[in-house]
Amino acid sequence: MQPANPAVALRGIGKVFESGVVALDALDLTAGSREFVSVLGPSGCGKSTALRIMAGLTPPTAGNVIWAEGAAPTRRIGFVFQEPTLMPWASVAANVRLPLKLAGMSATDAAPAVGAALARVGLADMAGAYPRELSGGMKMRASIARALVTRPQVLLMDEPFAALDEITRFRLNNDLLSVWQAMAGTVVFVTHSVFESVFLSSRIVVMTPRPGRVYDEIAIEEPYPRDDAFRTSAAYAGYCRRVSGILHAAMAAERVP
Which of 116, 151, 186 is the last residue of a domain? Predict the structure, then answer.
């Protein structure tokens, strides 16, 4: 199930940590241009490691990361971590401006991009606030805005909503789809939630337990935009059952001697 126009691909990726733990083994994973791909699997299967390798934050032991441009695009990758990791002493706007500041852009020149990123995640009126004044959901919105401020072609997200309550998580799922469609780029989203992956994704990649590799993939052939009505539809329930079945099969296959 290879995308016609790949944006980034992992080919034959292996990762062995210094402790001897084999996290990934012969992992092949492709994300297409303007595709929303969720990487689904049990805790410890190497999902986050694969994402960090894709981002260039962790080197693979084997294999290659292949970009459409031939090399990792400068300033065209956005990364959202599991925790917001905001600087507590800086305002929301200053936190969002950080990638541009590190790139040498002045505050004046960065201001339009910062304002646009905050508006896109619904935090335009919180630019002068500090992280301690924000709810958990608002902190994650600020983290997403920081990833968007460089106008990335590929947005990598590592279980960003896992620690949030269900209502906030549903709201941010809705907002994320709007952000993705507005950015006209690719999202690779790591999650361990079947329900979240089905709601968000155009395609779901299911990984095996460690050492992680792709067990199966499934396309979610439902139109966007998706809303709360989709969550209560028969189609959504059917996809959730199918994906759950694939996930359980992946885990069961690893238990067979």
Answer: 151
